[in-house]
UniProtKB/TrEMBL annotation:
InterPro entries: Plipid/glycerol_acylTrfase. Residues 149-293 form the Phospholipid/glycerol acyltransferase domain. SMART domains: PlsC. It comes from Actinacidiphila epipremni. Keywords: Membrane, Transmembrane, Transmembrane helix. The chain crosses the membrane at residues 29-59, 71-92. It comes from the Bacteria. The lineage of its organism: Bacteria, Bacillati, Actinomycetota, Actinomycetes, Kitasatosporales. This is Phospholipid/glycerol acyltransferase domain-containing protein.
Length: 357
C-alpha cells in the first residue's frame, strides 16, 4: 500500500470517528430534550386521567389502569433523566482518555444501571404487582467465577429484557454485555450507559450482525455474560409463520418442520448465537425461559392484564463449555433442541390468553 493510500485510509477512519461522535452527541441531545419536554406533559395527563377516571374506578372498584400506566411512564422518564445527569457526573470524575478511566466509567455505568433498573422494578411491583419466581434459585456465590457466560433468553412480553438485566446485575452479580435492538438508542440513558460498557446494537453501523456479536463475544471475560435474545422479537402467531417460511426459503426444511411444531416460542435465529459460541468457546452457556409477561403482547393486552394476576415465573439451566457441540451445523441442531425445551416449559406455564401458534 502506498503512503498516499495509508494517509487516505487513516484520514477516512478519523473522519468516520468524528462523524460518528457528532451523530451520537446529536442523538443524545435530542433524546434528553424529548425526555425533559415529556415529563410535564405526562404528569398533566396523569392528573387528567386520574380525575376523569376516578368516579368509574371508585364506583366499580376498578384497577385504575390508566393512572397506573401513566405514573409508571412518568417515573420512567424521571429515572431516565436522573440517570443521564448521574452519568454526566460520573464522566466528570473520570474525564480523561485511557484504559484506567474507561474501566472506571464502565464500573460506574454498571452500578448506576443496576440502581436505576432496581427502582423501576420496585415501582412496577407496586403499580403492576410484578413478582418474580425463579426456579432453581439464582446461585449465591456458587457460580464458577473464572468462566464467562453466554446467556440465551426467551423474548416474550413487555419489559422482559430490562427485568433480565436487572436480575443479572443485582441478583446474579454478573456484568451483562447485551445484544439489543438499535431502536433502544432512542433512550438517552441507555444510550449513554451502554455506550460505556461492552454492548452491541443491531443492526450494526458497520459489518454484519454476526461480526458484531462475534466481536463482542471475543473479549468476554468473567464475570461478564453476553446476553442475546435469539428469537429477535416477542412471539406472535404471525411472526411464527413468517419464521417457518423463512427457514423453508433458506432450504432448511428439516429445521422448518421442527420450528413449525413450536407453539409458544419463535425458532431461534442462530446467526448471532453461533457467532457468539464460536468467538467465546470457553464460555458456559445459560438458557433462560420465563412466562407471565408473554400475555402482554400488545397495548390492548396490557390494558387487559395489568396489574398482573400471577407472578412471572422463570427457569434456567447451564451447559458447560465442554458439553457444547463443535461446529456450526451441530450447534444449530443443538440450539433448536434447547429451544424445544424452552417451548415445552412455556407450554406448561401458559394460560388461555397466552399467544401461541
Amino acid at each position: 500500500m502506498s503512503g498516499e493510500a495509508r494517509v487516505a485510509r487513516a484520514f477516512g477512519r478519523a473522519f468516520g470517528r468524528v462523524g460518528g461522535a457528532l451523530v451520537t452527541a446529536g442523538r443524545r441531545v435530542v433524546g434528553v430534550g424529548c425526555v425533559v419536554a415529556l415529563i410535564p406533559v405526562v404528569a398533566a395527563v396523569v392528573v387528567v386521567v386520574t380525575v376523569l377516571g376516578a368516579p368509574v374506578s371508585v364506583a366499580g372498584r376498578g384497577a385504575w389502569r390508566a393512572t397506573r400506566m401513566g405514573v409508571f411512564a412518568l417515573v420512567y422518564l424521571v429515572v431516565d433523566l436522573v440517570g443521564v445527569l448521574a452519568a454526566g457526573g460520573q464522566f466528570l470524575r473520570a474525564p480523561l482518555p485511557g484504559a484506567a478511566a474507561r474501566e472506571r466509567r464502565a464500573r460506574g455505568a454498571y452500578r448506576l444501571l443496576g440502581r436505576l433498573l432496581r427502582v423501576l422494578r420496585r415501582v412496577a411491583g407496586r403499580l403492576f404487582r410484578l413478582e418474580v419466581e425463579v426456579v432453581p434459585a439464582l446461585p449465591a456465590g456458587g457460580r464458577r467465577p473464572d468462566v464467562p457466560l453466554v446467556v440465551l433468553v426467551r423474548h416474550a412480553g413487555l419489559g422482559d429484557s430490562f427485568l433480565l438485566l436487572q436480575m443479572l446485575l443485582t441478583e446474579a452479580g454478573l456484568l451483562p454485555c447485551t445484544v439489543l435492538k438499535g431502536m433502544l438508542r432512542a433512550d438517552p440513558c441507555l444510550d449513554v450507559l451502554l455506550g460505556r460498557v461492552p454492548h452491541c446494537f443491531l443492526p450494526p453501523a458497520r459489518g454484519t450482525a454476526g461480526e458484531a456479536v462475534a466481536g463482542l463475544a471475543a473479549g468476554l471475560r468473567a464475570p461478564e455474560a453476553l446476553v442475546i435474545f435469539p428469537e429477535g422479537g416477542n412471539f406472535t402467531p404471525g411472526r411464527h409463520r413468517r419464521a417457518v417460511a423463512r427457514l423453508h426459503r433458506l432450504g432448511r426444511h428439516r429445521q422448518a418442520a421442527r420450528a413449525a411444531r413450536l407453539r409458544y416460542v419463535l425458532p431461534p435465529r442462530d446467526t448471532g448465537s453461533l457467532a457468539a459460541l464460536a468467538a467465546a468457546p470457553d464460555a458456559d452457556v445459560v438458557f433462560v425461559a420465563h412466562a407471565g409477561l408473554d400475555v402482554i403482547a400488545s397495548p390492548r393486552a396490557a390494558w387487559s392484564f395489568l396489574p398482573l394476576r400471577r407472578p412471572v415465573r422463570a427457569t434456567w439451566w447451564r451447559v458447560p463449555a465442554a458439553d457444547v457441540p463443535r461446529g456450526d451445523a451441530a450447534r444449530s441442531e443443538w440450539l433448536m433442541a434447547q429451544w424445544e425445551r424452552v417451548d415445552r416449559w412455556a407450554a406448561q406455564q401458559a394460560v388461555p390468553a397466552t399467544p401461541h401458534a
